[in-house]
Design goal:
Distance between the termini: 25 Å
Order of helices and strands: EEEEHEEEHE
Largest sheet: 3 strands, antiparallel
Helix content: 10-25%
Protein name: Flowering-promoting factor 1-like protein 3
Structural class: alpha+beta
Number of strands: 8
Number of helices: 2
Strand content: 35-45%
CATH class: Alpha Beta
Family: Belongs to the FPF1 family.
Oligomer: single chain
Length: 101
């Protein structure tokens, strides 16, 4: 598998500079609202039956009433990655999508 990027010399050492990765956003489709905070995401998930199950300094876990599914999210929303976004999408297919920015 080939890696994308450009080889450059820095201080006599050859390094691979990676191309900028695409940024993603989680969108609540019924309102076409981009999720910009944990509070906004929790509010939308709460309206779909999700509630807090566990929390600590690093993560918040939500579970759906009457189900066994869990969603784990970083408390610091800037650490939300595409894996977290797709976890939300898979468990709420008709309500969320991930888009490229």
């Amino acid at each position: 598998m080939a890696a994308g990027g450009v080889w450059v010399f820095k201080n006599g050492v050859m390094e691979l500079e990676q191309e900028a990765t695409s940024r993603k956003a989680l969108v609540y489709m019924p309102a076409n609202e981009t999720m910009r905070s944990l509070e906004a995401l929790e509010r939308r998930l709460g309206s779909l039956g999700w509630e807090r199950y566990y929390e600590d300094r690093a993560i918040v876990q939500l579970h759906k009433r009457g189900g066994v599914d869990l969603i784990s999210l970083p408390r610091d929303f800037s650490r939300l990655r595409s894996t977290h976004m797709y976890d939300v999408v898979v468990k709420n297919r008709d309500h969320f999508k991930v888009v490229d920015l």
